[in-house]
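Review box. Two proteins, two foldings.
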Amino acid sequence: MPPARPSRSGRPWVLPLTIALGLLLFVAALGGSGLVDETPPLFAAAGRAMAETGDWLTPRVNGLPRYDKPPLVYWLMASGYALPARAFWDPLGTWAARLPSALSTVLLMAVIAAVLQRWPQGRARHPARTALAAALAFALSPLVLLWGRIAVSDALLSSMLGVSLLLFWQSYVESGRRFWLPWLVLGLAVLTKGPVALVLAGMTLLAFGLVQRDLPTLWRQLRPWRGLLITALVALPWYVAELAVEGQPFWDSFFGYHNFQRLTQVVNDHRQPWWFFLPVAVIASLPFTPLLVHGLITSLKPLWAPALRSPPRRSLGTFAACWLLAVFVLFTAAATKLPSYWLPATPAAGLLIALSAQDLGTGRLKPALATAWLASFGLLLALSGVLWASPRWVPLIQDPEMPQLPAELMASGYVLRAAVCFSVASALALALALRPRSGGLLAVQGALVAFQVTALMPMWLLGDRVRQLPVRVMATEVERHIRPGEPLAMVGIMKPSLHFYSRRPVTFEGRSAGALANLSDRLHRERRRGLEPSSPEEQPTVLMVIDAGTADQQHWRDLGAEPLASEGLYRLWRLPRTALDERAADLLGSGAVTLTWNLPKDERY
């Protein structure tokens, strides 16, 4: 089969505009808010520790190794933390931590647009508009808008895997040209979150080859044995070095717990029904989920219509459908299920949405597409109604960590701004339903970009001020009051950001009586990097951050605590360790509690 020829009619404005919109959506105001507990501070602390200690092999948090993820995201964060004058341009420590997620998301937007410009699909009259719409359909997914701006590894995995898969498809339609490039990027994906990237890529390519009825050609063009060697050369050196240095604990934690057990057993109580990712997929593509369904059905028609020929070799829609279904099948089969697991499917969903909508300007709409567009309009209208009704439901929000959130949210006017944006989007969708035009999806997406910039980002900053600012204030108070060598603890509501902002090892415990006994014993016996055990004679007090609800528990009362500061829900106490030890001895002697802190744990901070 002769190689297909790419289009030479691309518009030079598409990539710059895609990148500019990506920077607006994901990089603007990125450092204006603090880290969101509980996972992002763990990533950020590990990245900063690498930059400050020079140990770029093993991620460490709070004096403990963190084996849950490979190092690429930590290396990128550490590179930001190593830049000069960071206290000036990144005072909250969030630019450096969030940039890997944000910039990798922008990169994937650019690759989506570039591939669709180079290889227009179907009857596209304006491929440049379809390319931009596909990038935005991915970026405006509610999941992407959230995870693309937080300091975890999910967005980086989604981007590295997405770029790799798009390059695989492009290499296939170009008869194996630059076959090595997607394998190299896949190695970076394996360095981001482990072997799951290999599994998802393999499932996608296998499904695509079977649907296309062209598996031998796909195998020949992509040269998997050579490709896997390239992937291994990129990814394996760190795994080998980490295993050599850390040994069995790394093997048991990373491969045993964070990969095998998550697939075969429920961890951290993340038990969900088998159909969990169906509603997640619906929410992740709002308000264009009907277009996603239409695009998915259209792309997979050859599966149930044998009379049809195989899809065209250049069918990016078929490839995107196989990609999305690979994510769905793998994580539906997994015992542990989290909404973020759907993130690798969002680029494929964006492609299917845009390819479905590109026929809006090709004459009279087919009934199925017209129905999908009207359903999307209905969803936009429903979301507008919900937002306009915010004075009725916002006061019902109850969060003990943010008791003043409803009043501040209503006073800000941000929800009403969101209502205006969705109303404009609804009006545009209705107009385009009455008179379809090419690029109609882009017009609606413009209103949703305005929603992100004028409403969602300000709401994020408000939530940070209400929820996270008190923890940062407590960290400042810790620095002001702590004595040389005095241990620091946080009990009750556990916030890893206290460790990040105080830059000190923190002993975290819960609110129960058993937590009190654990804390007493840990101060005597626990040894971590930066933390040595001590007796009350050596260190007579412990500095403790405690929330108001925990402080009211009977076993935490009457310990002779000296109140030093308070902010929001949190109190800063200086607690005599003799009183703490005596209360712990009474609880242990009565048999009411047992010590549990030294039992093996898969996840600790």
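Next protein.
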Amino acid sequence: MYCTIPQRDERVMDYSGWNIFETQFDPAELHHKETLFTLGNGYLGTRGSFEEGYPNASAATMINGVYDDVPVMHTELVNCPDWLPLTVYIGSDRFCLNQGEILEYQRQLDLRWGIVSRDVLWRSPSGHTVKFHFERMISMADDHALVLYCQITPIDFTGAIALEASINGNIDNHGVKHWDWLEQGGSNNQAWLHQRCIHSEIELGMAFQLACSEATPVKFTGNPGTPTLTTSFQAQPGKTVTLEKIVTVFTSLEVNQPVAAAQERLASLPSYSTLLAAHGAVWDELWQDCDIAIAGDSTAQVAVRYNLFQLLAAAPRHNNRVSIPAKTLSGFAYRGHVFWDTEVFIVPFFTFTQPQIARNLLSYRYHTLEGARRKAQAAGYEGAMFAWESANTGDEVTPRWVFGPDGEPVRIWCGDIEVHINSDIAYAVWHYWQATRDDDWMQREGAEIILDTAVFWGSRVEWNSDRQRYEIRDVIGPDENHERVDNNTFTNRMAQWHLEIALTVYDWLQQHYPEKATELAQKLDIRPERIKRWSHIIRYMLVAQPTDTEVIEQFEGFFDLEDIDWQDYQWRTQSMQAILGVEGTNEKQILKQPDILMLLYLLRDQPLRTEMSAQQRRQLLQANWNYYTPRTDHTYGSSLGPAIHAILACELDDPAAAYEHFMRAALVDIKDVRGNAAEGVHAASAGGVWQAVIAGFAGVRLTEAGPVVERSHLPSNWTRLQFQLQWQQQWYKFDISPDAVLMTTHKPEASETYSEELNQVRPNRTLSDRCPITPLRGVIFDLDGVLTDTSEYHYLAWKQLADEIGIAFDRQANEQMRGLSRRDSLLHMLGDRAVSEAQLQEMMVRKNSYYEQLIHNLTPADLLPGALDLLDELQAADIKVAIGSSSKNARLVCQRLGIAERLNAIADGYSVEHHKPAPDVFLYAAQQLGLQPHECLVVEDAGSGVAAGLAAGMWVLGLGPVERVGHAHLVRDNLAGLEWQQLVVDLEQSQMLVCRD
């Protein structure tokens, strides 16, 4: 078998503000793209492998917390049963991209709503042409729900198409088997699988169903480990057949009977469109808090959003006993282990945007304290010594030996002596507390983390009587190119800082939570003598001081190591350690990442515990930047370094260097700049990208009064930067341009209070006196009849239902239902006919299913004249845009129309209880935009929608005949030729203005 692929062009990837497109399939990039198109919801993640499979694919679905033992490597995150398989047979030919001919191809990751879609026009080896459209979604609204959607359109043949949907439980981790098959079964259009991990004995239950628009019989089959549902239909040229594969998954970590739970959840789930709406609503809320908007640099914009997307997709929102592995849930590298990457690089993003997630991540460390205590005791120390690589229990799972490129075993020392992780975790706990003032969590969990790890430092340091100093010998610092060094400056200073804040926390506990202080003093053996020793260690800790040239030595003896000429290695495509070997690199001034620069970033206000002026700190940073930056392996060293370099370059007023380092971090997975993206997402780099934007380019500094911008450092091509941060229960919104910084604040509770208005129908208020129009900052569009016309689809769906229940229905009757919700429309159609609530619900579901099948045919060509031009103009004018529709399919329609990336919010039939003419949907949309009602313009084509907009206290543009929309402030026939600035002028000149309080 073979596959003909179109000739490569140079542009195989494309980007927009919210989308990443793969415009051509390249088998050589198969594994990289599997990582790139990873989806997740914090509970699980699935790599972007193809539904139909591909030779040597690295398919993986990983559930956070599902670990199993493996020889030598201790434990690893398990590759769970693959829920994607969907096999399509066109006659006797199996659809696969390694055979036949690919005529057209595009794959898309929609970052806004977390959907991967793929369109393929394929000609089978037998010469049959078929168009495929795939979509997949891992629900953010339901951790346990997964959806695969497929449309198959025969182009030039009539004949049989057979389908096989299955779960593949016969999977492994690169040859290591972790699952025992227990049982499986199926009936009608559903099937299920039950398996158990070999060593950890974690059980898993998966259930799935297959629905086909052709209503063909579905049969259950399959070998052990691969339950399968099959069906077939007769293809007709141009006729699209739709498939929905909905999957549920549970493990024994959450429920006692995972199979039963999966089956029960599956039975309760609605259609794909309904699941999509709920899923999209969660993403809308997340992006409202977490988005970073960049104007003037489309590549940076999509790259930043991609990195934030992968962090949000990996974040455990409902579980505080798991964390984010170094490769998220996207790949096999590092075996799903958790490193300092999470606390130092990732937690800050969540601390300031989703603090409840940051709390979950830190609680994971609290729940693994017993493992940290076991590690400390085994090593001969007191207190808690956190694992360098951690899994489910907190015990050390770093492999002690790995095989090098030559096949010889290499000793790995990180798990034994890379002890700075104790202070890294304390650093994250402390700064979470400072940012949130979450005193309750701090006294319950955070204080114990900081204090017990401080107990460890008290036993780990050694007193050097000759120097009259405490030392920390035989360690590895963040720069892992140098092993078993003494007095690593980063480690020593961070341990000293750790003990300082431990004293502060203990004092705070004694003052505010004396009972908790007494409890921890007894549990952790914190006696007055120990407190006195901590103070002594703080005072006499050996921390390297700057030389005459202001350079701080990374560790004792570093300056004596050999320098290299980097020009000799310009040819390389791998790290210097891979070229020179562990010992060779250990003997040279080659850094994987610079410890000193990292220290100057983390402890920027007091890096060496001595008082410094701003100018002195700047001189210190400049000297160490000049020394250590040229000695760092930026291209193939650690992916953790570039983002930090970007921040420090900003502080040194070197925007060109900052941007170079920043893009190296931001594109590490999108463009595979290090050649290892196939192994999984670079999670720490993703968190560093957020820090680089906020702390670097925006110049945000944290003060006792909250975050402020001391001095921004926007790249030359960035014309605007917008984001928001949460600090001590208050939101700070930043709007930064090259010549101005605007910051506004509001309490999170304000939106909750404001949302209460959504249940109140407010009358339209008009006054006789006139006033100038308030500057408009947002536009809320109705969907049907305004941006597109799906009325024909609605009519056909209602017509089909009416025919089935024996009600006369025509286009005139349909017109009378314009603007009504689905329920109100049905009640109008039924008239005096009495039906039960159950019958009413069934009819609404039936009508919607007909409508859903029809609207899947929508394309951007179905936008009404003028709609796209106006949306683009609003985007250019920085006017926020929302949808305010009674339709529960609004998100799906927007996706099909290709306008999702132009929208800031969607308010739909799921958003509010009361529909038009109540103002609730428009008030909700304004709330999502962060605007007051009088700052918004509603665009409507229905009388009920106009009434709703006016009742909301908004400006209203009516589209259509005056007799229908004449109460609007302004009336136009349609959007064709409508320009935003002229529209504002027309509103100002109109005599139908409303004065507002």
